[in-house]
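quick q for whoever's on today - can somebody do inverse folding on this one?? i tried earlier but teh output was garbage lol. tokens:
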């Protein structure tokens, strides 16, 4: 028999973590290769994690509702073949952690709360690294905590509730003893339970009044919040807006939409024209099609446009690959197909990967001006606002009613400056304002 590990998969090019929303198996279950093990949510997709082996579930290491980095071990499976190696006793090397939860003393700190107490019969109590870390940060004596996990195991949620209540059990005389006397402990075994990627901050004290409704935060909403927070914290956002006259484009699209729908079987939308114009401008201004990578900037060769598609409770960002090589008709078809997949729950992780620039159709909600948060790690996002009729002073001094639209761009100031972004928007403006039946073909 052998013990194999299942790790948190990468469900998208820019995805660095995932949340275990639901386990589909239990300890002792027999599974076959490719059987689903768990549902995982990220800010981009909700997917199932398949088994890479045939065997018996040995241990569920990750906890439901917690977020873990890509590559973190989330469960172990006992398989046929090889020699048995129990995780609790497997020797650890410098490069590879053993597969066992902590079964002896935790790393020694100044508080006895970090040590695993001895239970009845001399057995050691097991704590995950997430529990140990949280107890160290808040000085919680774990020996005074009753766990709600399997077999009375203390979970991260147990500690979060204690922290929020303010009634933190502190270690007594043992603390001073731990400070004064060096602890002679057996070598520390590293735990398999991966620590959640973000420590839980105490929830704000929001009073719940009669008539208020408490809505639990879903895994998708947590993932979106995490990615948006990361983007705002890491990327210094700047913002710019440009107004464009798209009267000719509106007249052109309206003149062909009926025949197009009859011939092609799907709608030709204004958004398809905007995505095509953006793709063309990105080809001419490749600096915009870049990503921040710490000590360097990666200028992407492929122009893959991420488009935001909303459902009732979440936002997904499928990708139109090689958008610069597609016609307006081809882009319109992909927008239609990807949106349908999002709303039917059939979007795959592959269709969420590889985006280099995001275009968001905020105008579909009637918005005329908005400031988007960049789709990390891309360098910019463009908001296409609602097309509205307004009186405009023309070059000849006459006033005319024109179809006007605002394009709002948020940019990562580490990667981009106002000059190149201004020229980029000017080029999109030129393309859109010169789109007409005489100059543009959708095929």
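ok took a stab at it. sequence:
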């Amino acid at each position: 028999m052998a013990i194999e590990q299942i790790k948190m998969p990468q469900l998208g090019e820019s995805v660095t973590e995932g949340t275990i929303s639901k386990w589909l198996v239990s300890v002792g279950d027999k599974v076959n290769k490719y059987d689903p093990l768990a549902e995982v949510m990220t800010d981009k997709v909700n997917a199932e994690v398949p088994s890479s082996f045939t065997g018996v579930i040995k241990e569920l290491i990750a906890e439901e509702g917690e977020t873990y980095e890509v590559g973190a071990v989330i469960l172990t499976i006992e398989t046929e073949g090889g020699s048995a190696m129990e995780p609790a006793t497997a020797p650890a090397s410098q490069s590879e952690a053993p597969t066992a939860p902590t079964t002896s003393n935790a790393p020694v700190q100044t508080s006895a709360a970090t040590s695993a107490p001895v239970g009845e019969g001399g057995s050691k109590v097991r704590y995950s690294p997430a529990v140990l870390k949280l107890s160290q940060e808040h000085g919680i004596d774990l020996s005074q905590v009753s766990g709600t996990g399997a077999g009375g195991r203390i979970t991260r949620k147990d500690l979060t509730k204690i922290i929020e209540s303010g009634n933190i059990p502190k270690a007594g005389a043992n603390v001073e003893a731990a400070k004064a006397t060096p602890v002679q402990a057996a070598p520390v075994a590293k735990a398999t339970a991966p620590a959640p990627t973000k420590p839980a901050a105490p929830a704000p004290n929001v009073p719940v009044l009669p008539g208020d409704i408490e809505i639990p935060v879903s895994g998708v909403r947590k993932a979106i919040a995490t990615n948006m927070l990361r983007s705002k914290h890491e990327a210094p956002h700047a913002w710019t807006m440009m107004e464009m006259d798209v009267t000719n484009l509106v007249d052109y699209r309206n003149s062909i939409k009926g025949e197009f729908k009859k011939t092609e079987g799907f709608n030709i939308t204004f958004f398809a024209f905007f995505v095509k114009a953006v793709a063309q401008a990105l080809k001419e201004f490749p600096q915009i099609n870049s990503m921040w990578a710490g000590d360097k900037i990666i200028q992407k060769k492929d122009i893959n446009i991420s488009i935001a598609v909303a459902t009732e409770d979440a936002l997904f960002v499928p990708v139109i690959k090689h958008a610069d090589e597609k016609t307006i008709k081809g882009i319109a078809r992909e927008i239609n197909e990807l949106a349908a997949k999002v709303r039917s729950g059939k979007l795959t992780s592959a269709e969420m990967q590889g985006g280099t620039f995001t275009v968001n159709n905020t105008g579909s909600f009637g918005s005329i001006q908005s400031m988007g948060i960049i789709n990390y790690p891309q360098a910019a996002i463009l908001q296409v606002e609602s097309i509205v009729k307004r009186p405009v002073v023309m070059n000849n001094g006459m006033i005319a009613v024109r179809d006007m639209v605002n394009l709002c761009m948020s940019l990562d100031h580490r990667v981009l400056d106002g000059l190149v972004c201004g020229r980029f928007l000017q080029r999109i403006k030129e393309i859109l304002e010169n789109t007409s039946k005489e100059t543009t073909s959708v095929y």
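fwiw Residues 2-180 form a domain with the OB fold (Dihydrolipoamide Acetyltransferase, E2P) fold (CATH 2.40.50.100). also The helical segments are 129-138, 156-165, 173-180, 219-234, 247-264, 270-284, 328-344, 418-433. so keep that in mind when u check it
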